[in-house]
Amino acid sequence: FLTLNLIEYIRHDIKHAMGNIKERETRTGTVLKVSELPDAEICEGDASEAHIHFVKTVAFLFEKFEPDAWWYGVFEIEIRLFETSFLVFIKRRIMQTLFASFAAFISLVVLREFQPWIKDSDDVVAHAAQCLVFLWLFALQAYDALRTIPKVKNPNLVWATPLSVLTILFVGFSIKKGYDDFTEVEQRRAGAEQNVPATRPKRRSTRR
């Protein structure tokens, strides 16, 4: 929460820097990072070198998200902690999976409502990934319940097989989305280069 307060403190600089990145990307077709911008385009007004350095240092927390979703990077870190490391404080496994499932559901709601990623394809991949995480966590709870039923001999097959297939499909889907994004960036870059007029050195006149 301290990190969230620090990010909130520089949210105006975040909007300023991300606006300049978007303008440069539209003009040149090149995807830039905050650290690659000139200092004058990172912060508004006369900012100190220490303040600009701080914005560059924490840029990884916000530069992939929409300016209005400056908080999402910290939120995602908290969700990952609730789904993994925080579970060591809960003894019962069924309560661990229940708590992690609740965290995954909250993340799904936030992704659906805010769509924080700059690229729409990233929103789609993130939403699909979080759905898969939620299904795996739900399957762990169902596995504990199915083990108590004597008639069910192999509860693993009930959930593991379809979820494994979904995981393989998700990996292929993510690779395709990544390739499509890479192709789009290359096409935009090539189009920007074609729109820039070629400058040739002037020839010296040989006439006297």
* SSE order, one letter for each helix or strand: HHHHHHH
* Helical/strand content category: mainly alpha
Proportion in helices: 55-70%
Enumerate the spans where pLDDT stays under 50 for 5 or more consecutive residues. Answer: 196-208
Shape: flat
Distance linking N and C termini? 76 Å
By DSSP (H or I, 4+ residues per run), the number of helices equals 7
Instruction: Tell me what portion of residues adopts beta-strand conformation.
Output: under 5%
What is the CA-based Rg, rounded? 24 Å
Note the topology:
Elements lengths: L1 H8 L1 H18 L20 H9 L14 H12 L9 H22 L5 H28 L7 H41 L13
Helix pairs in contact: 4-5, 5-6, 6-7
Produce a short descriptive summary:
The chain is mostly helical and 208 residues long. It is built from seven helices and no strands.
Question: Would you mind describing this structure in some detail?
Answer:
This protein has 208 residues and is mainly α. Helix content is 66%, strand content 0%. Residues 196-208 have low confidence and may be disordered.
